[in-house]
TrEMBL record:
Catalytic activity of the protein: (1S,2R)-1-C-(indol-3-yl)glycerol 3-phosphate + L-serine = D-glyceraldehyde 3-phosphate + L-tryptophan + H2O
UniProt name for this protein: tryptophan synthase
Enzyme Commission (EC) number: 4.2.1.20
Pfam families in the record: PALP
Gene: trpB2
Domain Tryptophan synthase beta chain-like PALP: from-to ranges: 92-432
Assembly behavior: Tetramer of two alpha and two beta chains.
Pathway info: Amino-acid biosynthesis; L-tryptophan biosynthesis; L-tryptophan from chorismate: step 5/5
């Protein structure tokens, strides 16, 4: 069923609570460096393993996929890494992004005055999401290294759109493999990517041996990010002159997103506030890391204004890697072409249901975020997509921003925190990342408006079957 907010009389939406006069803050500048949380980890991140030799990977092992500069960032333990001026020049087209007090939404929810919700809005980027924050530097470093083409995968299309646009900024051709179910649901993502001058193909495709095999096994295969990653890597390696780019999961990607949280730290100070809880949706982990890591770094260094600050990662119940997956070494793709990464995983062969939050349909979580959860520094929860869309609808009616399906999960997480705080009577400042708009996702919002949204709970039996092939559950570990 669609949210009751859709049918509520506008005259009754804002009864009973004064609206805050301070609504939004942009007043800061784009950070000059990225924050690298690896410098503050109490326990080092387990290393990626070579899939054949089961030893820690070296820089040479990654050289066929990434330029040397990005490999160096991936393994760096320096706290801050400078953002090149050429990258800052492009990012300054839309950054800093606004931090907004959700005062109208607070009023709809009937929250007490001491429960406050703030959101960082990343939908003003050229691609409509946070993904462009890492796409720009990845293309820049590849261009500097002499790369001739970049291959990549994309789920819902935010990452493919971001990389395609960024490729145009530096004159670098982009080839995108999009998960087929999202390719069919979101045709205007394809149009956007092609308008940027990039090539896009539904995955699985017949362009690669990986895709061809997947279609032979299931001609109606809806695809997955694991398959799309395999196709993009195969296309990269077989090309001989291409490199590969990833929109989430890897440590350098998460680090590029920390411009979000660094800006939010300064912007919240203009409100005279500091969060009690930071919320983000998680699929691979990049936007959660972007908003949370600068605050979490303060906590790890015992510098947080509120030492008990919490961090909540919200994922779809249909693809619950953090809440139900095993923490073990596993492949990052279906064809097992990647190094083994220690992370919360559902198994590289996991085929998630065709939910509308395509950007969250990944079988594993970022190693850094998985590691932090194992250390007990972050929390995780899974929500159903109907509840997420209900929350997103309520937010849209109040704040005027139609969220992407992925972002509705963060909104639902923030809503749960607000209700819990209101019930307890304790003051609470909630910050979440509104990581992208839903203007390319009207197929999903149309189904929601018609009451046709479906919820999925992945059966435990199927989950256990998927986990049987995880190398980390079959004797592979380090140390």
């Amino acid at each position: 069923m669609a949210s009751t907010v859709l049918r509520r009389s506008p005259k009754k939406l804002f009864a009973g609570r004064a609206l805050s006069t301070a609504k939004a803050v942009t007043g800061t500048s784009l950070p000059k460096s990225w924050y690298n949380i690896q410098a503050d980890l109490p326990v080092p991140l387990p290393p990626p393993l070579h899939p054949g030799e089961l030893r820690p990977c070296t820089a040479e092992d990654f050289a066929p996929l990434f330029p040397e500069s990005l490999i160096a960032q991936e393994v760096s333990t320096e706290r801050y890494l400078d953002i090149p001026e050429e990258v800052r020049e492009v990012l300054n087209l839309w950054r800093p992004t606004p931090l907004i007090r959700a005062s109208r939404w607070e009023k709809i929810l009937g929250l007490p005055e001491n429960v406050k919700i703030f959101y960082k809005y990343e939908g003003g980027s050229p691609s409509g999401s946070h993904k462009t924050n890492t796409a720009v530097p990845q293309v820049y470093y590849n261009k500097q290294a002499g790369t001739k083409k970049i291959t990549t995968e994309t789920g819902a299309g935010q990452w493919g759109s971001a990389l395609a646009w960024s490729g145009g900024q530096f004159g670098l051709p982009i080839e995108v493999y999009q998960v087929k179910v999202s390719y069919e649901q979101k045709p205007y993502r394809k149009a956007f990517i092609e308008a940027c001058g990039a090539d896009i193909f539904p995955s699985p495709s017949i362009r690669t041996t990986v895709g061809t095999k997947a279609l032979e096994q299931d001609p109606k295969c809806p695809g997955s990010l694991g398959i799309a990653i395999s196709e993009a890597i195969e296309a990269c390696v077989s090309s001989g002159e291409a490199k590969y780019a990833l929109g989430s999961v890897l440590s350098h990607v998460l680090m590029h997103q920390t411009v979000i949280g660094q800006e939010a730290l300064e912007q919240l100070s203009h409100f005279g506030e500091y969060p009690d809880v930071v919320v983000g949706c998680t699929g691979g982990g990049s936007n959660f890391a972007g908003i949370a890591f600068p605050f979490l770094g303060q906590k790890l260094r015992a510098e947080a204004e509120k030492p008990e600050i919490r961090f909540v990662a919200v994922e779809p119940a249909a693809c619950p890697s953090l809440t139900r997956g095993a923490y073990a070494y596993d492949f990052g793709d279906t064809a097992k072409l990647t190094p083994l990464l220690k992370a919360h995983t559902l198994g590289s062969g996991f085929m998630p249901p065709s939910v509308h939050s395509g950007g969250l349909r990944y079988h594993a979580m970022a190693p850094l975020i998985s590691h932090l959860k194992e250390l007990g520094t972050i929390e995780a929860e899974a929500v159903q997509q109907t509840a997420a869309f209900d929350a997103g609808s309520s937010f849209f009616r109040a704040e005027g921003i139609l969220p992407a399906p992925e972002a509705t999960h963060a909104i639902e997480g923030a809503l749960q925190e607000a209700r819990a705080a209101a019930k307890s009577g304790q003051p609470c400042v909630i910050l979440f990342n509104m990581c992208g708009h839903g203007h390319f996702d009207m197929f999903a919002w149309e189904k929601y408006a018609k009451g046709e949204m479906e919820d999925f709970e992945f059966p435990e039996k199927e989950l256990q079957e998927a986990l049987k092939t995880v190398p980390g559950l079959n004797g592979v570990n380090w140390p």
